[in-house]
Amino acid sequence: MVELRYPARAYLLVALLGAMTLGYSLSRIAEAKEYQDAYPFRAQFARLAGVKPLIAGERQVGYLSDQDPRRQAYARLYFPTQYVLAPTLLVPLEDARGAKFVLGDFTRQEDYAAVGRKLGLEPVKEFPMGVVLYRRMAAPAPENPASLVPRHP
Amino acid sequence: MDLLPIFLAILAGLVPVAALLPGTHSTNPETPRRFGFLPGAPALLLLWVSLAFPLGSGVIGLAYFVLLLTGVDSPWVVYAVVACFSACAWWVLSRGPKAEIAPADPLAQPDAGPAFPLNWLLGILAAVCMLAVLASMAGILAKSPHGAWDSWAIWSLRGKFFAAGDGFWRNAVDPGFHLSHPEYPVMFSSFLGWSWRLAGVENAAVPQAVAYAFLLSLTGIVGAGIGLLRRASLAWMSIPVLLSPIVMMTVPASLYADLPMGTLSAAAAMALLLGIASSLDPRCFALAGIFASLCAWMKEEGLLHLAVLGAVALAFAWLERRRDPRWWRPVAAFAACAAPASLFFAWFRFAFVPDASRFASEPGPRAAGGSLTGRLLDLSRYGEIADQIWRMLATIGGLLTHPLVFLAAVLLLLGIHRRRTKSFVFLAACATLALLWAGYLASFMLLSARPGTVLAASLHRLWVHTWPLLVVVVFLLTKSPEDLAIPIPARLSRTERKEAKAARGRSRKGEV
DSSP string spanning A94-111? Predict the structure, then answer.
């Protein structure tokens, strides 16, 4: 009859794995505690809550912003808004010829009605925090939406 | 209701997996126990369940998209179609020969002999690690329930379009959606859409449950696969190592498609390795083919995984041509099972949502310009890639809890099993990993954008695609604690010693 004897390094590996697992588990939990959401969505849901029922059933809605589409700030504004308002697709205004409504998503306080008029849009409703829902005017006087974007050096 | 889609996906995948994995169709009732993992929880059973969810979710994602194309948008009709498909697969496969898996290559056999006595402790360590990752994921998801950027800009966002069904799902692939990626494969989003539709509520809990399910599946595939191919002790050790990179917590919590992609790739590789270990069992190759084609449906990188796994399946079957004149059968099984989803993806990518090639020169600040050859010969691009890999490795773990330290500790303390380095299973795993890495390197070299810029944003999550296979390779290579055991004569118990003494006394008296 024989028994199996394991060398010390087998037990050392188990001890090492134990210590590493413990250290690893504690550091993961600490990292999760320190985690900060860079793009808090809760604010977006509250900001856009009033828009959703008005555009329900619309497959596509135009999208107008005062940010430069070539910059990251535009995407940071667009995607959370799009996520909250899905399944309606927000199409940049210049591509949304057939859309009945246009969503204005602004970062600066302005005369939103005047901004819309320049583009042949009339406001349906203004919401807090730079959100405006427009409708196309019967006789549009369109202007290039890019003119809304401030020039960057 | 949030968990109902997960359970239904597991059920849908379980039947074909059970029909295709070795051991399940054996006439010998001892066979599953030969792969013993834990009493009451054999590795084979764990592997079935772990493979069932990725398979079920992949097939449901594909079926939902196909049925939406045909105008059917009921989630229950989709499930009925998938369930019929599973039942047909079982019926066809269960009528096949009931041969026991008998690997011709003794190196492909799992190790025999008594188990390491501290397996229970290794099991506890694996469970602690798993719980820590799940708890940290839950902590992150509590603060960021909709995941990170690519989740709400691509994957879950498109899932919302699919969840809305008729009239809205086309938004996910609309050219007007060019701010996102309408050309990306839709399997993950389609499954999320189906799940939301089935759950009847469009909340953050469904994508979170899907992420947890994929993480558990990946852990099960790697752990149970190593348990089947080697030993339970190595299987338990592999779990803390697999979960050790910080990206195994952050990427699942981001709700990206990279964790499902890594899970499908690991599933395909494991099915292929089990097929090679089981004398080229065509059923395992068929399962590998299905998973490999689902990789292509999950992310664009999946095309590379499909090509590599196909090439490895072909090469290792061909190497067996002298021993098995019908070596082409497993390759044909792989190709036949990979074909439907692959062809459908080719149609989707090149006909349904055609888009400019990723490798074409593109204008813009990130474009590097130059010909393909010029990019390949540009040494600075290699430098950028090496720099990004170094940066990524420096941030995926602390000094003492770094995943490479885990791997090094296992290899240094257990040593390399030299005989197993000649095993086809090990060589196939190495070939798959090496080809995947070479493919990723080539794609970043050929990309028009500077590789440093692209990798800075993506290397952490890309690591999840191949890390499980690296863990499998290391645990196929290393010795097990049982290999280090030295047999010694057993010490007798007190009663046995008394009996032996009495027997000696009696024999002496007899001699006198």
Answer: GG-TT-SEEEEE-SS---
